[in-house]
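Much of our argument rests on the idea that a fold can be written as discrete symbols. In the encoding step, the backbone of a single protein was reduced to a row of integers, each denoting a local shape. We regard such an encoding as a compact summary of how the chain folds. The record that follows shows the chain in one-letter code together with its fold in token form:
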Amino acid sequence: MSVYYNPKRTRNLFNPKDREPFRLSRSKIDDFFNCPRCFYLDRRLGISQPSGPPFALNAAVDKLLKKEFDIHRGKTAHPLMEAYGINAVPLAHQEIDKWRDSLRGGIQFLHKPTNFLVTGGIDDIWVNPQEEFIIVDYKATAKDGEVSIDAEWQESYKRQMEFYQWLFRKNNFKVSDTGYFVYCNGITDKESFDGKLEFDVKIIPYKGDDSWVEGKLQEIKEVLISDTIPKPSLNCDFCRYRAVVKEAEV
């Protein structure tokens, strides 16, 4: 059965007159960073961007990593953690499965100044001897050379880490400033495929700064309560596409 794009959604829209908390996910906050206009069209008017196909391979890597770290959960460090000298173990907590499932709400916090119910689904949490939660994010790619988080387009990765650090702190957990990216890089220089894809796995530390979150939530609220659609973003492919189509149809 084919699933068609719905050009005009009528549910999960922001209503300035509604007193009920408005659910705002981590991914939607990142959409706002990318383009306030597209975010407004989506969350206020129900006109969302057409979605691409799911990244099935990335999802498979994510699932397998979770299974692997679950073997050590609450007991011992994963061999990769030992290899990188990380003094921690995967966290054993009664809510861990819920926190990792964004469809079940992940971890949530009601931000009262904006009345946003802010949500996010994490990949993993480790815990160190100081009982600090360590936010962990899995990434998968296939590229020549070493993976890093230094590219401009990877700023969203860093924001993602910082947002989760903020969200767990707001839930009264002690959170380490340093999180880790478990980065899997598909090896493409093998002589043959042989029905399997192998990966180099690297752990990359990142010291986050979540001081931007509160201000950004306030900025999002100001945009949503306005009846004026934000101007097109210069670096937004969707805005440029719509502008060119409009010119062609005149």
Observations:
- The longest strand covers residues 133-141.
